[in-house]
Design goal:
With 350 residues, the protein is an alpha/beta fold. It contains 15 helices and 10 strands. Strands 1-5-6-7-8-9-10 form a 7-stranded parallel β-sheet. The chain has a 3-stranded antiparallel β-sheet with strand order 2-3-4, with no helix packed on it.
């Protein structure tokens, strides 16, 4: 099978020669994977691993953020970040939250919200053309939509959760502004791509390690219409829609299916109720799962043989259909590259 025919069969829940395989990696991980494989570039590394997907991130289509002499930068929402070094590498941490003291609707309206004009999608169709003759084109990132995490970077997670619980008009207006801007960004990309984006990738983390982040009624009131808007948008332009959502989300899956979601990404098997076997049994005929090889467990702390065994278990649980093999999240700086390669190679049958 080709990369594209394998994906198309998977979306129809048909059996494939092997599961489609996706590689998503954070920060300096692509460089480490290139070195580990002895490849000349990240593209070459993906070729060596026979990865079926190629990603166009929304931030690839705007000017990079300028950093000051300390390495601090301010993103388009006004959130300032600073580099933090730990034993694994460097991450960017929030240093200033511009929404923290916003307390009135007048302040929400007066805030200098970013314009979708910051993004230039004039060449997105040609970039899709270069990929699509062989690979599956994914556009987006968990940071598209991302109403809870994305808003919390500028307001603080505790306050965002209080806003949701109390249905505070100011807090909900901040979510609406983010939704409005990123929905327009996604539509411009899809329109300019002229039907050549296969998967629209969005995100919002609705789960904790032990259960839903909020009660389902609150989720249905505040978030279901917003998720539906992105799903309907992707389908309007012929794209499948993939939702990144960390945590224990079993209770949400039936509602996502009802909304028309195609792919659930970042299936965090370590969280409560998220065992692969049960998810495939109960929902595998109605939605495609992407991930399931545990980033916070086996990939970070196992060895290559253990990773191979777990990968075989998950692929077997899928019954050979409706599954895209990938880590539960982006490969992180604490992921041994030997473990990541063992996962990919097991999926390939090597």
């Amino acid at each position: 099978m080709t990369h594209r025919s394998r994906f198309e069969a998977t979306m129809k829940h048909e059996r494939c020669d092997r599961p489609p395989i996706d590689c998503i990696a954070e920060g300096q991980v692509p460089e480490r994977l290139v070195r580990h494989l002895g490849a000349g570039s990240y593209d070459e590394a993906l070729e060596l691993l026979d990865i079926d997907f190629r990603h166009l991130m929304h931030h690839d289509f705007r000017a990079p953020y300028e950093k000051d002499e300390r390495g601090f930068f301010t993103d388009m929402w006004g959130v300032r970040r600073r580099p933090v070094v730990n034993i694994y590498g460097t991450y960017d941490e929030v240093e200033y939250r511009p929404f923290a003291d916003i307390s009135s609707m007048d302040e929400v309206e007066a805030y200098p919200w970013p314009s979708p004009d910051l993004f230039d999608f004039s060449d997105i169709e040609s970039r899709c053309d270069r990929i699509r003759n062989k690979y599956v084109v994914v556009f987006g990132h968990p940071g598209i939509m991302d109403l809870i995490n994305g808003t919390s970077f500028g307001r603080g997670m505790e306050q965002v959760l209080v806003d949701i619980a109390l249905e505070d008009p100011v807090g909900l207006a901040l979510l609406e502004k983010r939704q409005e801007i990123l929905l327009e960004v996604a539509e411009r990309a899809l329109r300019k791509a002229n039907g050549k984006i296969d998967v629209l990738w969005i995100g919002d983390d609705y789960g904790t390690q032990n259960g839903p982040l909020m009660n389902i009624d609150s989720w249905k009131t505040v978030f279901a219409p917003k998720l539906r808007a992105f799903i309907d948008l992707g389908h309007k332009y012929g794209a499948k829609v993939m939702l990144h959502s960390c945590g224990s989300n079993r209770a949400h899956i039936p509602h996502w299916i009802d909304l028309g979601l195609d792919i659930y990404q970042a299936v965090q098997v370590e969280a409560e109720g998220m065992d692969a076997g049960g998810l495939f049994r109960d929902f595998g005929r109605h939605i495609v799962f992407h991930g399931m090889v545990g980033l916070q467990s086996i990939l970070a702390h196992g060895n290559p043989d253990e990773v191979r065994k777990e990968t075989r278990r998950i692929v077997a649980a899928s019954g050979g259909s409706g599954y895209i093999l990938a880590p539960t999240h982006f490969l992180e700086l604490d992921t041994p590259m030997g473990n990541a390669v063992a996962m990919f190679e097991e999926g390939l049958g090597r």
